[in-house]
Design brief:
Elements lengths: L11 H10 L2 H23 L4 H35 L12
Length: about 100
Amino acid sequence: MRKVKRLDLMNPSDLLIRFRQMLPFQQTVVAGLILFVVYELYASLVAGLKPLEAARESMYNTIIFMVVYYFATIVIMRKNMQSGTQVKGPKKGLRGK
């Protein structure tokens, strides 16, 4: 019987593998949540904003980040899929020249 390797959630490389296996929408939500928490803490503790102001600013920045991240991921995935299906080598008119 073959042993299946379990992903260790505390190992950074396993976390990265798990993240890359997610759909783009799931990746966007996870990255957005991380950004929201980090920026919320920064805005309230370091920048000295009130909690409601910090939450508003964090939400605004997170939404912008999530929109850009999602569409950039989709564009990159499409380009990777197209480049994988294209034949490498000279174009049809350039063969034999």
